[in-house]
Amino acid sequence: LGLLSAMAWPRFDVACETTRAEDASAVLRSVWLAQRMHWLEHGSFAHSLQELSDEHLLDKAVPALTQPFAYSLQNGGTAGFAVQAQRTGSQEWSGILVVEETGELTGQLQDGKGHHVVPAL
After folding, report:
1. For residue range 49-105, what is the model confidence (pLDDT) as tens digits?
2. Long-range contacts of range 68-77, CB-CB < 8 Å, 24 or more positions apart?
3. pTM: predicted TM-score of the whole model, two decimal places
């Protein structure tokens, strides 16, 4: 039983991290949608997550999230934007996921053992 557990643990760890990455991509997509709505109302993209939250376009919890991902908004204005989710709170996993104004999700998470997690598009 111990041998089977030892063999299954890396797969379980990757599966758990995949779930976290999928959750982060859902948050990124909600920020992307909030930015699109902000654009329709103001003709420009918001400069901060707090601004989107204050306008009730984004859940108020998102700007304060720090674990397992910290979210930040780059750029804003009329040129475009990028929203970043950086993996935090883990000694094993690291990486960054990004969604830009086009809606394209890029980035990956990795651990020290060579495992990579890329959220589904």
Report:
1. 999 999 999 999 999 999 999 999 998 888 899 999 999 999 999 999 999 999 999
2. 68/20, 68/24, 69/20, 69/24, 69/27, 69/97, 71/27, 71/28, 71/31, 73/31, 73/46, 73/47, 73/48, 73/49, 75/45, 76/44, 76/45, 76/46, 76/47, 76/48, 77/44, 77/45, 77/47
3. 0.88
Pure H helices in 43-116:
49-54
CA distances from 100 to 4, 51, 69, 79, 83 (A): 42, 18, 17, 11, 6
Would you call 49 exposed, middle or buried from its count of C-beta atoms within 10 A (0-12, 13-18, 19+)?
buried
Contacts of 98 (CB under 8 A, 6+ apart): 28, 82, 83, 84, 85, 105, 106, 107
Dig out the tokens for 47 from the structure. Answer: 């400069």
